[in-house]
Structure formats: structure tokens, C-alpha cells
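Dear colleague,

As promised, here are the two records you asked about, laid out in our usual form so they can be pasted straight into your sheet.

NAME FIELD: protein one
SEQUENCE, THEN STRUCTURE:
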Amino acid sequence: MKACLVVCGLLLCSTPAFANGNSSLNSELGHFAGGVFTSSAVTALSNYIAPEQNRAWNGFWVPTAVSSLEELREFAVGDNTAGEALLDASCFAVGAFIGSYSTNHFLLTPTVGKDGETGRYFGLNLAFRF
């Protein structure tokens, strides 16, 4: 199932994209979809690269920071107005939140770790009866 979702996502991303700077619904949906796919990928990579860190936060903040810096650059160069840059960045951030949350909770397996404050373990507990 996971492999099927990844293949479908890659097929959706492989369609040709034509750049035109406007604030239409299609443009904002493109930023939203880009946020979903990139944050899902970063969340999955964070699970394998740094499993001790919170993978959902990594999947949200890393792509959102890069996208926000890109929109700031476009505003500084004069390609976008402040309102268009803010709209693009916020649509990307909403998509990144949904992508990282859904990947963390529905596609990746739960993690079990040690809580530093109480010493208790949290996560998924499996019990089998013999």
C-alpha cells in the first residue's frame, strides 16, 4: 500500500509544470500539493536519518523554511508582491502541515522511545497471548 502511494505521488509530480506567476486557484493548489509531497518525503527521510528526533516537525519545518526563503527571495527580486508571496508561502505551509501529519500518523510505523523526564516509555504497545 505504501509503495502504491509513493508511485502515485511520483506520477502526479512528473506531469509537466508551466511557470506563470499569478494568484489563481491552480497556482495555489500547486503550492499546496508541493507542500504535501515535499513534507511527506522529508518526514519519511527523517524517520531513517534521524529517528531520535520528531519526524513530523522535521517534515513540516524544513520544507516550509525553504519555501518561505524562496518566496522572500522572489519578493526581494521583484517577481512577487508581498501579498502574493505571503499567499504562496501560506498555501505551501498548510500543505506541508497536512503532508507531514498524515505521513507521520498513517504511513510510518509508530516509534517507541524513552521519555527523558519521567523515564517511561511511550508509543505502541503490542501484547500477544499464548
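NAME FIELD: protein two
SEQUENCE, THEN STRUCTURE:
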Amino acid sequence: MSGRRMALAALSALAATTVFTVPAGATVFEQGISVHPEAHLTQDGGVVLSGTYHCEQASPRGAMQIKATLVQDGTRLSVGAEEVVCDGAERRWVAHAPGSFVHVHPGHATVTGELQEIRLSGLMPRSVTTVAQDSEDVEVREGH
């Protein structure tokens, strides 16, 4: 096989691979998240944040997660929610920060919920992309 023909065959194989792998790894942007207007302090001094979300299946090279961030009086607290199920249905999310890490009190705060896609390279995260976000003024209340 000539060098030119070999190069053309290699280029064709590379182009075919690119055409078929890029769409499979693309993010589906039919995602959404909302933040509930109330947060609750627990008896141990922790805080519970919640809301709803909906998403389609993450790309074959990724996974989905929810990150919730509460800001109150200059204190910033970020916490992850439980496992995310992406089947298109609207679901409730809950994020709980244990009391030993929390300095939150009853009153006004801002909570941002982010639905994030984690793109993997093998078992390691390659990138994190926020695919949906909502920020709300919330009232932190005692008891849950």
C-alpha cells in the first residue's frame, strides 16, 4: 500500500470515529432544577436544603450530580444532594449538611441549586459542567 493511500485510509478511519463518537458524548440540555423557598435547621445544628429537578440520561462518558450552595451573612456552604436519577421525570432533591460543619441560623439566606454533568476520563473526572441552575432567596427555619 502506498504512503498516500495509507494516509488517506488513516484519515478516513479518524473521521469516521469522530463522526460517531462526538454525538454519543454530547450533553442533552433538557435539564432543569429548582430550589425550595425554605431551608430547615436540624436538631444537631445541620441544615437541609431541597428542591426539584428533572434530567435526561447523562452522556455515556459522564454522570449527573446536584450541588446546593447556601450563602448567609458572608458564610458560604456547599453540599451535594443524594443520587440523581435521570429519566425525564420531575423528582425531589435533598441536600443535608451535618451540624459540625454548619454555621447557619434562622433567617434569610440565598440558595443556589446546580444540576451538574461530570465528564469522566476512565474513572477520573475530566470536567464538571452546570447544565441547569436556580438561585432563590430562602427562609431558614428551625426544625425539620
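A couple of things worth noting about protein two: Residues 114 and 133 are 4 Å apart (CA to CA). The longest strand covers residues 124-142.

Best,
R.
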